[in-house]
Write a structure and sequence with these properties.
Shape: elongated
Distance between the termini: 114 Å
Order of helices and strands: HHHHHHHH
Number of domains: 2
Number of strands: 0
Structural class: mainly alpha
Strand content: under 5%
Region (Disordered): 161-192
Low-confidence stretches: 162-167
Mean pLDDT: 80
Number of helices: 8
Largest sheet: none
């Protein structure tokens, strides 16, 4: 070195700093003030065994956290599409839970027989309930997401009458007939 400043190196360094600053500004411009945590429109749950009526509502369980998540994303300088990706990940998590529950339910229901037998047994119970209960009450028993095999078996037992015993009033004691109501109460309490 001859003691003179290297203008070429300085120029390269300065150009690199200006470019890095421009990139930083571009990234900052891509960071929104508020993130939109909507589900991606093309969200699919391929490879998961889910019921036909499955839908996921991530906002229902995670909405209270969206403000904090947005703050973290902003702090990290994440672009707007990061919120959608995060929401998609949360939706897949919920779908996986539902898929596991659905698989467990199907295994449970298999104890009732083939799908046709399962359906027939459930319909028989439902018809029997409709003859014994007001329509709204009978429908309420089957209005949940899914009834379990144990639930169907329990209702079958109840409806078959094997578990039902009609309470009977003991025959009146002739000696009790002559007593006043107060004396009957005293006598009944003494028997205990």
């Amino acid at each position: 070195m001859d003691g003179k400043p290297d203008v070429g190196k300085f120029s390269d360094h300065y150009t690199g700093m200006v470019a890095a600053d421009a990139q930083r500004r571009e990234r900052e411009a891509a960071v929104p003030e508020k993130y939109d945590f909507a589900l991606p429109a093309d969200m699919k749950f391929e490879g998961m065994d889910l019921p036909e009526d499955f839908s996921v509502n991530v906002a229902e369980g995670f909405e209270p956290l969206f403000g904090e998540l947005g703050g973290v994303l902003k702090e990290l300088g994440a672009p707007a599409e990061a919120a959608g990706k995060l929401t998609g990940l949360l939706a897949r998590y919920e779908a996986q839970k539902a898929s596991t529950e659905f698989a467990n339910w199907k295994t449970d229901m298999a104890t009732l027989g083939t799908p046709e037998q399962q359906s027939a047994r459930a319909k028989n119970v439902q018809r029997a309930l409709q003859t014994k209960l007001p329509a709204a009450e009978a429908e309420a028993l089957f209005s949940g997401p899914r009834i379990s095999a144990a639930g169907i078996r329990a209702l079958e037992k109840l409806l078959s009458g094997t578990n039902l015993s009609t309470p009977t009033t003991p025959p009146p004691n002739a000696a009790d007939e002559a007593l006043t109501p107060m004396e009957r109460l005293k006598r009944a309490n003494m028997k205990k």
